[in-house]
Specification:
Elements lengths: L1 E12 L4 E10 L6 E7 L5 E5 L3 E3 L15 H6 L14
Antiparallel strand pairs: 1-2, 1-5, 2-3, 3-4
């Protein structure tokens, strides 16, 4: 399934550490990741990312706090598997 997102959805791209806008959603079936075609805010580059590489951005209207922008792997490298990736840390 291909779905055009209108308006685009703002995300934070973890691998590139940059804000982006998702314009198209690709879904291949029941047991696959959802993929987003995104345009990077700073460079204008177009990339395809699975949903695991994207994070929702801060949104005051939806009462979403600021997010921790580190990838999941950095949490487990610190030796504490009980950290939640969307919670803010005061390291």
């Amino acid at each position: 399934m291909i779905l055009r997102l209108d308006p685009p959805i703002p995300f934070f791209c973890v691998p590139l550490q940059e804000e982006c806008q998702a314009h198209i959603l690709l879904e291949y079936g029941l047991e696959t990741f959802v993929y987003f075609i995104v345009v990077m805010d700073k460079t204008g580059e177009v990339w395809l990312f699975p949903n695991r590489d994207l994070r929702g951005t801060k949104n005051f209207t939806l009462d979403r706090p600021s997010i921790n922008k580190e990838p999941f792997s950095q949490y487990f490298k610190k030796g504490s598997s009980d950290l939640h990736p969307l919670e803010e840390t005061n390291d």
